[in-house]
Design goal:
Order of helices and strands of chain B: HEEEHHHHH
Largest sheet of chain A: 7 strands, mixed
Helix content of chain A: 40-55%
Number of strands of chain A: 13
Radius of gyration of chain A: 22 Å
CATH topology of the largest domain in chain A: Aspartate Aminotransferase, domain 2
CATH architecture of chain B: Alpha-Beta Complex
Strand content of chain A: 5-15%
Radius of gyration of chain B: 16 Å
Shape of chain B: globular
Distance between the termini of chain A: 38 Å
Strand content of chain B: 15-25%
Number of strands of chain B: 3
CATH class of chain B: Alpha Beta
Largest interface: A-B, 39 and 42 residues
CATH superfamily of the largest domain in chain A: Type I PLP-dependent aspartate aminotransferase-like (Major domain)
Oligomer: heterodimer
Largest sheet of chain B: 3 strands, antiparallel
Strand order of the largest sheet of chain B: 1-2-3
Number of domains of chain B: 1
CATH architecture of the largest domain in chain A: 3-Layer(aba) Sandwich
Structural class of chain A: alpha/beta
Number of helices of chain B: 6
């Protein structure tokens, strides 16, 4: 199998340019972030932050200062509200399970939307086995949660509502403040969690402004290292641990703190938030250049998700009709353009992206979808290159499709 | 809905990049399809068959992943110049082997390709109004699988419609 991959890689030799747009699934870490992290492996603060020696105290100082920076960017009251976890998946698991375990005597119902990420959806499915029930609220054709349905669904039994601030696949900027008011009006005790992994550093997002109880953020989605994320837990909100072990500085996550990754996350946050408006404007500009270029150059395409200010600054998601998505990702890769697809072909089941199906896309439209996210590091030339490569790639794959499946 | 690594082998990649016998055939004796775009997987075969029941030419079009394209293409290569009776005996495993092996989640691509081929052969004899002794009437494994996938597409489409109405 590894031999096959070596061959696949050899097929990429001679690529003229590389444009990585698969930020949804992993990131390219800027050198500045790596440079910030490196000393913490062996130069300083390599100790365990709970121990009484210099490298330990250095680690304690470093972790607290990093948490303070992230707490400031997120708008927390105190740095204790930041709980580092090994990533978005773990923070979402902690948010759902930890809250429900602590709320189990008040209510056993969870309300989410149809378009939450897998680390929300699968946790709620797992919790159903233990007597918790889940209600999924539908969304409209742009991915906005039906607030009327939300109002109907939340009741005395509802322990937790979890709605992502920005949808990870189609970039919908959810009306979190409105949703939260509806939820708290129906049941003041219901806790509100938002997965803000695609909001933090990409749209103005502040936990005090939105007044959420819990929020997930992720390092790699803002070009920090993988393996680190955080769960914001508002002061006074009770969340139980879901893993047991040696507890150190992180009261909700046991094990030895990974100081270099925490430093990397903090540095990536700094870079995202210094010149924030400028960065967002740059991403919006490239996003729209990419969307308009594709819609203008390639026939039979559909933009998935809302337009303009209702869409996250970085998100481009387009369905190419009569063009299967996995085949298109391979074709683009051979030209150095790296993207992902909502096609079922890279999944274990034959069903495509649940997000695209929830907004009413037909299955074949979902199979032909491509997800791309731009960053502040991308340039106009990068987008021009993609707009040069993409029409030819789509044309070739459509040439293989021919009349197959055309009714 | 988990994802799987897809370390395609060089043969699959080569056939994906330069598919052999691609495209519609104007003078085809028989055309057969299998699969459904809703499943992200559909194949059309065009066969030109002579009086001696030998496949003179074969071509394909397909909507699907790299494995789907590669298996369809290799089937058209394998059956060129073959008697229909011999073409009928080709199993999906032989097809998978011919493309250098498939990841297990892509076995259905090979199955669908052989399903489409068997449908073409049956359709040819039905049109001709003859039924050779070697041609089994009941559905073969591959035809059944193709049918199952098409049924699944219908079920999914129906479920979606119901949800829309809700």
């Amino acid at each position: 199998m590894v031999e096959n991959v070596k061959e696949l890689l050899r097929a990429h030799e001679g690529i003229k340019r590389e444009v990585y747009l698969d930020i949804e699934n992993s990131s390219v870490v800027p050198q500045e972030v790596i440079d910030a992290m490196l000393p913490y492996y062996n130069k300083r603060a390599y100790g365990n932050p709970t121990l009484t020696h210099k490298p330990g105290w250095e680690a304690f100082e470093t972790i607290m200062e990093s948490a303070q920076k992230i707490a400031n960017f997120l708008g927390c009251k105190t740095l204790e509200e930041i709980n580092f976890t090994p990533g978005e998946t773990e923070a979402n698991n902690l948010a759902l399970m930890g809250t429900l375990f602590s709320m189990r005597n008040k209510g056993r119902k969870i309300v989410i939307s149809e378009i939450e990420s897998i680390s929300i959806l699968h946790v709620t499915e797992m919790l159903q086995k233990y007597g918790f029930t889940t209600n999924k609220v539908p969304v409209d054709s742009e991915g906005f949660v039906n607030l009327e349905k939300l109002k109907e669904t939340v009741d005395k039994e509802t322990a937790l509502v979890s709605l992502s601030a920005v949808n990870h696949e189609i970039g919908t900027i959810q009306l979190i403040k409105e949703a939260l008011e509806i939820v708290k009006d129906k049941n003041a005790e219901t806790l509100f969690h938002t997965d803000a992994s695609d909001a933090y550093g990409k749209i103005p997002f502040n936990v005090q402004h939105y007044d959420v109880d819990l929020a997930t953020i992720s390092s790699y989605k803002i070009l920090g290292p993988r393996g680190i994320g955080a769960l914001y837990v508002k002061e006074g909100v009770n969340v139980e641990k879901i893993l047991e072990g040696q507890i150190g500085t992180q009261k909700l996550w046991p094990g030895v703190e990974n100081t270099p990754l925490i430093v990397g996350f903090s540095k990536a946050s700094e870079l995202a938030f210094e010149n924030f408006e400028e960065n967002v404007a740059h991403m919006q500009n490239l996003r729209d250049k990419l969307i308009n270029g594709i819609v203008g150059k390639i026939p039979d395409v559909k933009l998935n998700g809302p337009k303009g200010g209702k869409r996250a600054s970085d998100n481009v998601n387009i369905s190419f009709l009569r063009c299967e998505g996995e085949a298109l990702t391979i074709e683009l890769s051979l030209s150095g353009v790296y993207v992902s697809s909502g096609s079922a072909c890279t999944r274990r089941l034959l069903q495509p992206s649940h997000v695209l199906v929830a907004i009413g896309r037909k299955f074949d439209e979902a199979h032909g979808s491509i997800l791309m996210k731009v960053t502040r590091y991308h340039t106009e030339e990068d987008i021009n290159y993609v707009l040069d490569v993409l029409p030819r790639a789509v044309e070739r794959i459509r040439g293989i499709t021919g009349a197959t499946g055309v009714e | 809905m988990s994802r799987i690594p897809l370390p395609y082998n060089p043969k699959v990649l080569e056939l994906f990049k330069n598919p052999k016998n691609l495209g519609k055939m104007e003078d085809a004796t028989v055309v057969a399809v299998a699969g459904n775009p809703s499943c992200g997987d559909m194949i059309t075969f065009y066969l030109k068959i002579n009086d001696q029941d030998v496949i003179e030419k074969a071509s394909f079009e397909s909507y699907g992943c790299a494995a789907n394209i590669a298996t369809s293409s290799i089937v058209t290569e394998m059956i060129k110049g073959m008697k229909l009776e011999d073409a009928w005996k080709i199993s999906w495993k032989a097809v998978a082997e011919e493309v250098g092996g498939l990841p297990s989640v892509k076995f259905h691509c090979g199955i669908l390709a052989v399903g489409a081929l068997k449908r073409a052969i049956k359709k040819y004899y039905k049109n001709k109004g003859v039924s050779p002794g070697w041609l089994q009437e009941e559905l073969s494994f591959e035809e059944k699988q193709a049918l199952e996938e098409e049924e699944l597409a219908k079920v999914l489409a129906k479920r979606m419609k119901l949800e829309e109405e809700k």
